């Protein structure tokens, strides 16, 4: 028989909300709940980051690096339409996010970061330092 580990903390804001001592916990009311989902892939020579930012255009997104912190910000402002357009309900609104990522020691901050945005996915490529690149196994001759 195989056991499957159950993740009780799948929705942490629900458990915090149901806990009376944590009714006003920061997790539930935090602005960070609208952070874009992120995938990180480590390759031999670089790291690839993918962030899901649908509804934003290239001009709405800004990527900056300060020391070893990568900041990804986005702001999408809704345009005020005239009431005479025939709308009975409008739910489109402004949206924004900011995600800061502390880069690991293995990332080379001096190299250019490649960024590409397509179909709501922002892809970033961060090069590794030469020392962080895994070297092939060598055989040492014994004398």
Structure description:
This protein is mainly beta. The chain has a domain at 34-80 and 95-132: Sandwich (Immunoglobulin-like). The protein has helices at residues 12-18, 26-29, and strands at 38-42, 46-52, 61-66, 69-76, 95-102, 114-118, 121-127. The strands form two sheets. Strands 1-2-7-6 form a four-stranded antiparallel sheet, with no helix packed on it. Strands 3-4-5 form a three-stranded antiparallel sheet, with no helix packed on it. The protein is elongated and about 90 Å long. Residues 29-143 form the SHSP domain. It holds the Pfam family HSP20. This is Hsp20/alpha crystallin family protein.
Count of helix runs: 2
CATH class of the domain at 34-80 and 95-132: Mainly Beta
Low-pLDDT residue intervals, each spanning 5 or more residues? 19-31
- State the CATH topology of the domain at 34-80 and 95-132: Immunoglobulin-like
Strand order of the largest sheet: 1-2-7-6
What's the helix-strand series?
HHEEEEEEE
**How much is the radius of gyration in Å?**
22 Å
Structural class: mainly beta
* Main sheet makeup: 4 strands, antiparallel
* Helical residues, percent: under 10%
CATH hierarchy: architecture of the domain at 34-80 and 95-132:
Sandwich
The best one-word shape is elongated
Share of residues in strands:
25-35%
What is the mean pLDDT?
A: 77
Would you report the number of β strands? Answer: 7
Termini, distance in Å?
Answer: 52 Å
């Amino acid at each position: 028989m195989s056991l499957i580990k159950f993740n009780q903390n799948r929705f942490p804001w629900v458990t915090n909300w149901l806990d009376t001592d944590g009714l006003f916990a920061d997790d539930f009311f935090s602005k960070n709940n609208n952070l874009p989902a992120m995938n990180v892939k480590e390759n031999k020579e670089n790291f690839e980051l993918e962030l899901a930012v649908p509804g934003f255009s290239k001009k709405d997104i800004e990527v900056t690096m300060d020391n070893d912190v990568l900041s990804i910000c986005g702001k999408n402002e809704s345009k005020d339409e005239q009431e005479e357009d025939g709308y009975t309900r409008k739910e489109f609104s402004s949206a924004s996010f900011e995600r800061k990522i502390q880069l690991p020691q293995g990332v080379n901050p001096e190299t250019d970061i490649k960024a590409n945005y397509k179909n709501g996915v922002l892809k970033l490529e961060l090069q590794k330092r030469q020392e962080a690149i895994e070297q092939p196994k060598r055989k040492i001759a014994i004398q």
